Amino acid sequence: MVSKMEHIQLLLVDLQQAYDRVWRKGLLLKIQRLGINGNLYRWIKSFVHERTIQTKFEDKVSSHHTLEEGLLQGSALSCTLFLIYINDLAKEVRCNKALYADDLVIWHTHRYARQSARYINLDLERLQKYCDTWKITINTNKTSYSIFTLSPKVTKQNLNIRLSDQQLKKEEHPSYLGVQLDPRLNLKKHAANLKRKTMKRLSLIKRLASTSWGSGMDTLRSLYLGYVRSVLDYNLCLQASSSKTVQSEIDRVQNHVLRFI
């Protein structure tokens, strides 16, 4: 819970080409540190070793090129191996943090925004050392910070948050895991995006509801649950914390959809 006198500084860190830049020798070292040895270790080593690619254009095929780093695209195992590779990244961050796959977010709460910026800068220094050691690149052009506060004065502040001597940009309405946030965390932007996306999908249901071959109750209900309701239910717990105005806007969209079913 954040009081009216406190402010939240949020940093969204973008790891550049995260899957394609995995250092394989470092990955195998971390696998051994987890106690994975024997046949399983040798199988994983064989799995990532000497992977090659080719390019085909019309009837022409290029020669094989060996990939020295990165994980195999499209493999279910690649996700697990990537998580093993960056699992210890969060230990380098002292502030509050959340790591979902390659989406890293760091935040700090304080009465003074510039004090929070100081703590975040210290974490960025530690994070940069970690990335240099394990050959991970942070995309400074896509890494940004935001301020969440009830104070209009603090909202307008520009903080000195830097990475590798480069000033990071400020983002007024950042997006994290498909949710667009705003300085007061009232989710108005997210609700507007949700409404626009839902109404666009609703147009398909309208077309089906007006035809003889697609107007069956079961067809419309299945389409609604899979194509529209899934969008409305995404981050439902976060929507519950929004204002009554925002919730009523979302309810109005859903009621509009239900008239066709």
From TrEMBL:
Reverse transcriptase domain ranges (all copies): 1-181
Domain of life: Eukaryota
GO molecular function: RNA-directed DNA polymerase activity
InterPro entries: DNA/RNA_pol_sf, RdDP_mobile_element, RT_dom
Keywords: Nucleotidyltransferase, RNA-directed DNA polymerase, Transferase
PANTHER family: ENDO/EXONUCLEASE/PHOSPHATASE DOMAIN-CONTAINING PROTEIN, ENDONUCLEASE_EXONUCLEASE_PHOSPHATASE DOMAIN-CONTAINING PROTEIN
Name of the protein: RNA-directed DNA polymerase from mobile element jockey
